Amino acid sequence: MSDSSLRHRTGKITLTVRRSDRSALAEQVVTVAQRRHAFAFGNIGFDFVDLVGGPDPEGAQPFGGTDQSDLDRLGQLWLNLFNTATLPFYWGSYEPRRGAPDTGRLTKTARWLADRGVTVKGHPLVWHTVQPPWLLGLDLDEVEALQRARIRDLVGGFAGLINTWDAINEAVIMPVFANGDNAITDLARARGRIHLVRMAFEEARAANPTATLVLNDFDLSSAYECLIEGVLEAGVRIDAIGLQTHMHQGYRGEEYMLETLDRFARYGLPLHLTETTLVSGHLMPPEIEDLNDYQIPQWPSTSEGEARQAEEIVRHYRCLLAHPAVESVNYWGLTDRGAWLGAPAGLVHADGSRKPSYDALEALLKGEWWLPPTPRRTDPDGRVIVEGFLGDYTVSAGDRSARFTIDAADSTATIDLS
Predict the structure, then answer these.
(1) Are 328 and 290 in contact (CB under 8 A)?
(2) CA-CA distance, 158 to 37, in Å (whole number)?
(3) What are the pLDDT digits (tens) for 215-238?
(4) Are 163 and 206 in contact (CB under 8 A)?
(5) Is 124 in contact with 168 (CB distance < 8 Å)?
(6) Count of CB atoms within 10 A of residue 372's CB?
């Protein structure tokens, strides 16, 4: 894919650089450097809940987790690539005992990430899986009231710290889900998908009107399109369409991905690739329909698989960023340790050593798609032109610096070094 396919991700700004006394910094060498991508390059931050917030007293988190001594190493690896973190708010692990939510650990983790410039997202507000057993047997009116209260408590309580949420997860299958009893499937079956989607979005919107709320699903068939159309026709405002691409059975290819992106972009909403994985071991057999049905004692990473994963992650990210509707890509796991379904889908091994896929992604995000500290010379009027990927930058001369943002194809700004 040529560089021209990413022109919509780049911009140019003409800076007029001035000294603190507002005189032009004429014909001087300045250093410009990128600090952050505007595009949301994300990964889950599940491991950091234990590392930052402390051990889970209930042992309820369904996957993820690492050793306390890993914080510095994992933190450095994670922060080197990603600017957006998804944290787990599965009801069954967040509130395994009624009235005792895991608020403290999640708050501490979200603040740790935010303090390091990371945008934090919560996942999910409504889902039929990882449900607390204490919901079973309750009257559906009480279940709905509890679900509504949970949405308000989370979105309102974390407002300002977490402003992006997967409002409802996998609503297409929700009313017909048959892999275990849960009260949310019963509620969806009785009251319908659109009712639950409306509930999720309207309660969340009321709790934090500025939140970005995502409709998220793994079912990328026409059934999801029908649900989106029904939700929009019902007057429910959604902010982004979430598309899951767990590719344990192999990369689906650019043609498939672009066709899929086009189908969902026609609604005029941003697309968030919320859950992306590519494995570095053998591929899951193609006849497996539900990825959860393939759980084996060991699923090792292999040299051949690692080479394939590295090549495919570059193809996948290039493909996604080439599509103008895509606003966010969230990889589902940094390390193989505690990975979902035990799959070798991480970018680093269980021991924290890098895989080729990590290096390949770094070569894109912090290499090809990044402006490192670069000397430039201002003209007689103190002007300098900077081109790069949309995002945040600094310009410096000696011990003085200033921040600026590239957010358009062509713009101008005057900044004072301080």
Answers:
(1) no
(2) 24
(3) 999 999 999 999 999 999 999 999
(4) no
(5) yes
(6) 10
Cα–Cα distance for residue pair 418/416, rounded to 1 Å? 6
Rounded to whole angstroms, the Cα distance separating 191 from 159 reads 29
For residue 172, the one-letter residue type is V
Tokens representing 297 are 């004692």
Tell me if residue 79 falls in helix, strand or coil.
helix
Q: What angle do CA 102, 103, 106 make, to 5 degrees?
A: 90
Alpha helices in 160-292 (DSSP H): 183-191, 193-207, 222-233, 254-265
CA distance 170 to 87: 17
**Bond prior to 88 in cis (omega within 30° of 0):** no
Distance (Å, whole) CA 226 – CA 147: 25
Structure tokens at 389: 């990927």
Residue 168 CA to residue 242 CA, distance in Å, equals 10
Residue 12 pairs in a beta bridge with: 387
Distance CA 31, CA 22 (A): 19
CA distance between the termini of the chain: 41
Distance CA 167, CA 68 (A): 31
Strands of 261-390, DSSP E: 271-278, 326-331, 374-377, 383-389
**Which of these, 170, 186, 158, lies nearest to 94 by C-alpha position?**
158
Say if residues 125 and 89 touch (Cβ distance below 8 Å): yes
pLDDT digits (tens, 9 = 90+) for 111-162: 999 999 999 999 999 999 999 999 999 999 999 999 999 999 999 999 999 9
Contact residues for 10 (Cβ-Cβ < 8 A; gap 6+): 387, 388, 389, 390, 406, 409
Tokens matching residue 145: 């009231």
Paired sense of beta strands 391-397 and 400-406, if any? antiparallel
Structure tokens at 119: 């945008």
The model's pLDDT over 172-221, given as tens digits with 9 standing for 90+, comes to 999 999 888 999 999 999 999 999 999 999 999 999 999 999 999 999 99
- Closest among 121, 36, 137, 131 to 84, alpha carbons compared: 121
Euclidean distance between CA atoms 269 and 239, whole angstroms = 7
Residue among 282, 283, 277, 285 nearest 302 (CA):
282
Structure tokens at 296: 């084996």
- Using CA atoms, how far apart are residues 111 and 256, in angstroms rounded to an integer? 38
Helix, strand or coil, per DSSP, at residue 44: strand
